[in-house]
Write a structure and sequence with these properties.
By secondary structure, the protein is mostly helical. Among the domains are: 54 residues; 88 residues, Arc Repressor Mutant, subunit A, CATH 1.10.10. It has 8 helices and 2 strands; from the N terminus they run H-H-H-H-H-H-H-E-E-H. A two-stranded antiparallel ribbon has the order 1-2. It is rod-shaped. 12% of the residues are buried. Keywords: Coiled coil. This is KfrA N-terminal DNA-binding domain-containing protein.
Amino acid sequence: MNEQRKQELFRAADGLLARTGRVSLRTLIPLLKKGGSNREVGPALAEWKAAKGYAPALKIKELPVPLQDALAKVAGDLWAAAQAEAAARLTRDRENLAVTVRASEELLAEALDRLDAAEAEIAGLRESVTRAEARLERGRSEEFWDRVMREIYEILRASGTMTAAQILRLLKPATVRGAADRREPLTPRTLHKKMSVRVSHGWYFERGETGFSRGTFPTLGRAREAAPPA
């Protein structure tokens, strides 16, 4: 179809739409000067409809009353069926959601139980570590003070006595620093207390009126039987 004939078709379609509100091949072809076939006019009419955005609505009021009633009943039935399907789907979705929520709650409860058990186990391990560290620290403390007592034993003369203050002045600087590092600075009072503990166990020293003197040097067997407090 040439451009001149296409423009004629477009004008005829515009007029038909303005008069009747509907345009079809059956009503348009008779208006063309040379008529035309469906094959010839159809593509041009489709182009016109696309340009105009043509989409006529079905006019129910033009249908016979019995057909209108039937269509209304069908529409009502379809609407009711759609509502029933939507309600059923909503019910299924709610049930599925409830199942999912219950499963999630069960998993959460299980996870919390495991967390509680893990925290209890961790607390027990921490307590065990704390006790082990305390035992280790006591062992280190006993070993340190035992070295100090052996050093004092060597400082004391074979005969005679010395006060704690006199002994303190003769201790090695490293020994004094070691006590300070253990947060037990060596003072005459501290040294007197530590040595008195050994005296009560019969280890290293004897105590007289004027100070401490050499006593019995503990053997390894006795040391293993009962070590005095640090």
